[in-house]
Amino acid sequence: MYSDTQSTRQKYNRSSKFYNLMEFPIEFLMFKRWRKKLFKMLKCPKVLEVGIGTGKNIKYYPENVWVVGVDLSEGMMAKARPIVLVVTFVSIYFIYFK
Ligand SMILES: C[S@@+](CC[C@H](N)C(=O)[O-])C[C@H]1O[C@@H](n2cnc3c(N)ncnc32)[C@H](O)[C@@H]1O
User: Fold this and answer.
1) Does ligand 1 lie within 6 Å of residue 16's CB atom?
2) SS3 97
3) The pTM is what?
């Protein structure tokens, strides 16, 4: 694996523990609104989300969308999985690559 990729993975694995907390202000003030707007426009039944992270987009997907989430940080994805259990109408498959 390229060293840039490796260092990105390490960076996100490290910050995964406090990522949502760290992002909370900007999420609350801006991103949340943008996600709502963006996902309302989604018309396709299948999505490949590259860099699904801690799964912040998951709850904004419209019903019956089939999503494959890809990420290189297992730490970030570990935070996303429990959200899928709560938001059951979205079919999400996670792929973590080494
Ligand atoms: C800024 S976070 C965004 C997460 C999420 N999409 C969101 O809206 O909150 C970027 C995510 O992309 C992942 N990532 C970065 N480079 C990647 C790559 N080349 N392939 C897959 N995932 C990658 C990181 O591990 C991280 O979880």
Assistant:
1) no
2) coil
3) 0.88
